[in-house]
Design goal:
Length: 513
């Protein structure tokens, strides 16, 4: 309970931060708001993710954010929508901490019964592991940073952890069901399928702890039971996507946006390795802490392989380590985006760090409650500072929100403009779609190139006021030059250090255009 209370404090502290959405959060929240406010539950538009997380956000908005206007219209303020969209992932992150206890018991202890508290103090190497695993997850800066967000990855992590727990408990059908729900959040959930199968084929053990080789029939049955719910969910998603009636399907858009399509080039090897190392340093604290604890875990696995190669728990260590290495190599050597949130699925592998700590205590013959409590206290003292920094958005993970701190001022300026105002925008589409509000009366127009903007603006006959909004950090000169070359007069209406807004006067304005 103490661990969960600390985890809750960190995660609700993160929820209380006054930060605007990351563009991806804004995109998902806009879809969720359209469902909660306008009843658009088929999520029309350019969506490349399955809908489960968005539906959960929409339900949260309907419960804690949506209000009714005097005329009976439902609405949702941007700030209330931020809170409501992020709230489900806070609870998902808390549940993930609790699931780590069950997962540690399933992989390394008894999956059928609870471990008495006194056993945790007298058998550190096994029964104390669930406590350490939960503590490590509660304090992980990466877990804390992504708890109070509207990304699809928070709920994904919980469902993957549940799937792995059920497989460790020898319930492959339940494992497949949780994996299928994870797939309904994000397609990358399928990357967990090999780990589930490896664990499912290695969870039989003798009473003395020896690993037992499963028969081919049992392995095939396990694979079928895990895969069946995923297949069912996939078919249901195909039907759902067809019912949306969009010009481009979810699957085509996902392939276009997320398929790396190649291995990395030679000049990308070192930069990508450094990028991933920079993200991974926050798995278990500050970089030096994560490096030290990871080194300890590797030493423990090597020691167990040398001394106890046939034990079932050693097999689990090797399987988890092999999966972690394969996952890392895949994201390093294949040209996926180097987003820090792609490391969230490996957080359950914090179990290996807990195993490393338990191995050291076991090798020194330590079996007392005082030593275990001292170890947990030391982890808390060292880990609380980086976890608090992550909750306060003071670390470079969790989605960079600093670039959008001035979004309120920008939107207030644009919303004060007359009905039908045209806003030309190239960089802020998802942000403006959300923060302009559910029932905005402004028209946001996107053009891919400066020439296209100039040509389209000239051809627009509507005399409504026109504005060009952009972050000040973007290369604006080609866009401004193209507009001036087309005859537009430009004047700065807002410049606050982050965003700039130009008023556009059509060259034929005097002729009524």
């Amino acid at each position: 309970m103490l661990i969960l209370l600390v985890a809750a404090w960190l995660r609700f502290h993160a929820l209380a931060q006054d930060v605007r959405f990351h563009p991806d959060e804004a995109l998902f929240a806009t879809f969720a708001r359209s469902a909660a406010v306008k009843g658009e539950w088929l999520l029309p538009g350019a969506l490349d993710k399955p809908p489960l997380t968005i539906y959960v956000s929409a339900l949260s908005m309907a419960l804690v954010g949506v209000t009714v206007l005097p005329d009976g219209t439902l609405t949702l303020t941007p700030r209330a929508g931020e809170f409501a969209a992020r709230l489900p992932n806070v609870y998902a992150s808390l549940l993930t901490v609790a699931v780590m206890v069950a997962l540690a018991k399933g992989l390394y202890g008894s999956a059928r019964r609870a471990v008495p508290l006194q056993d945790a103090f007298t058998n550190i190497s096994q029964a104390g592991l669930p406590i350490m695993a939960a503590w490590l997850m509660a304090l992980s800066p990466l877990a804390v940073a992504y708890s109070a967000t509207a990304f699809t990855d928070g709920l994904l992590l919980l469902l993957l952890a549940l799937s792995l727990w059920q497989m460790s408990a020898r319930r492959p059908l339940w494992a497949g069901l949780w994996l299928a729900l994870a797939f309904a959040c994000k397609q990358q959930a399928l990357l967990y399928l090999p780990l589930l199968l490896l664990v499912g084929w290695g969870t039989r053990r003798q009473a003395v702890g020896e690993a037992v080789r499963l028969s081919p029939v049992t392995r095939v049955r396990t694979a079928v039971l895990v895969s069946l719910p995923v297949l069912v969910i996939f078919i249901l998603l195909l039907v759902w996507d067809a019912a949306r009636g969009q010009a481009v399907s979810l699957w085509s858009l996902a392939a276009a946006n997320n398929d790396p399509g190649r291995l990395i080039r030679a000049e990308e090897v070192l930069p990508r390795l450094l990028a991933w190392a920079g993200h991974a340093q926050w798995l278990a604290g500050y970089g030096w802490m994560t490096a030290a604890l990871t080194g300890l875990a590797l030493a423990a696995i090597a020691g167990r392989v040398r001394r106890e190669p046939h034990r079932w728990s050693t097999l689990m260590d090797v399987l988890l380590l092999a999966y972690g290495l394969a996952y890392g190599l895949l994201h390093w050597l294949v040209a996926f985006n180097t987003y820090d949130r792609y490391l969230l699925p490996v957080l359950p592998l914090l179990l290996l760090i807990g195993r490393g700590l338990a191995w050291v205590l076991h090798r020194t013959g330590t079996r007392s409650a005082a030593v275990l409590l001292a170890l947990l206290l030391a982890l808390g003292i060292l880990g609380l500072s980086p976890a608090r920094d992550a909750a306060g958005r003071q670390v470079p993970i969790g989605g960079d929100h600093r670039d959008y701190a001035g979004m309120d001022r920008l939107v207030a300026h644009l919303n004060a403009k007359p009905l039908g105002t045209i806003i030309y925008d190239h960089w802020l589409g998802w942000e403006l779609d959300y923060y302009l509000g559910a029932w905005t009366d402004k028209r946001r127009v996107y053009y891919p190139t400066p020439a296209a903007l100039a040509a389209g603006a000239l051809e627009q006959p509507d005399p409504a006021p026109r504005y060009f909004a952009a972050p000040v950090t973007q290369p604006l000169t080609p866009w401004l030059d193209a507009l001036r070359a087309a005859g537009f007069s430009l004047s700065v209406e807002l410049e606050d250090g982050q965003f700039i807004v130009y008023r556009l006067i059509h060259p034929l304005a005097g002729a009524g255009v």
